[in-house]
Amino acid sequence: MVLEDQAGILVQGQTEGMNTITMERGLGLRLAAKIAVFLCIIIFLYYGSEQIVNFFAFQMWPRHVDMIIYLLFSSAAAYVVLMAVPFMPGIEMGILIMMMFGRPGILLVYLCTLLALTLSFLAGSHLPPRILARVLDWFHLDRARDLVMDLAPLGPEKRLHLLLGSTPTRVVPFLLRHRYLFIAFLLNLPGHAFIGGSGGIGMIVGMSKIFSFPKYLLMVSIAILPGPIFFLVRDVMR
């Protein structure tokens, strides 16, 4: 009788173990499928942005003079959208405008970049935390989801204290204390389109609610200067 009970317990344990392994495999497959879908969307958006850039990239001839103003502002509007939306590489459009229109285009790109990053910040600051929590939950990022919900009812100072207290390493508190310099570095980091692009960075900064908007605006206005300065010097030295 005892042997039968032990055998039954052993079989039950094996069955539960197999069920757990099956559930973990199913969860991994679903997560992989979701990541694949997300990457496909990013690739599609990237390809679409390239088509927009190619649409505006054509040789300017004297017969196109009447189209210059229309082309300048329409390309600037497309650039603002591409820069403000996460994972959209709008830098190609900005480079195209600066090369095609010279100094006026350089100034326009600078102002449009400032506008785009302002819009992404404001969009992130007004985005309900539950939407971000749902996205994180969709990717099965449970700890990140719980952190977002814990931060939701807190003010900026309490958010910062909670983040500083919940990080086990010294690197994250250092980055949080120097968060404006860190964001300026990310905005100028080559290949930052893979972490959301300038629009994604601005949106995340706004969603965090630990950044003062005037300080953010000042930081962005300085951080985005290297590109326009490079093209301005290039234009002067011709």
Name a few traits of the molecule.
11 helices, 238 residues, single chain
Put the structure in a nutshell:
This protein is mostly helical. The chain is built from 11 helices and no strands. The termini are far apart.
Protein described:
The mean pLDDT is 75. The protein has one domain (3-236). It is built from eleven helices and no strands. It has helices at residues 2-56, 68-84, 91-125, 129-138, 142-151, 156-166, 171-177, 179-187, 197-208, 213-223, 226-236. The protein is mostly helical and 238 residues long. The protein starts with a helix and ends with a helix. The longest helix is centred in the first third of the chain and has 55 residues, at 2-56. It is globular. Helix content is 79%, strand content 0%.
Give the low-pLDDT segments.
none
What is the CA-CA span between the terminal residues? 96 Å
Number of strands: 0
Name the overall outline: globular
The overall pLDDT average reads 75
Give the percentage of residues in beta strands: under 5%
Q: What is the element string, with H for helices and E for strands?
A: HHHHHHHHHHH
Proportion in helices: over 70%
Main pleated sheet? none
SSE layout and pairing:
Blueprint: H1 2-56, H2 68-84, H3 91-125, H4 129-138, H5 142-151, H6 156-166, H7 171-177, H8 179-187, H9 197-208, H10 213-223, H11 226-236
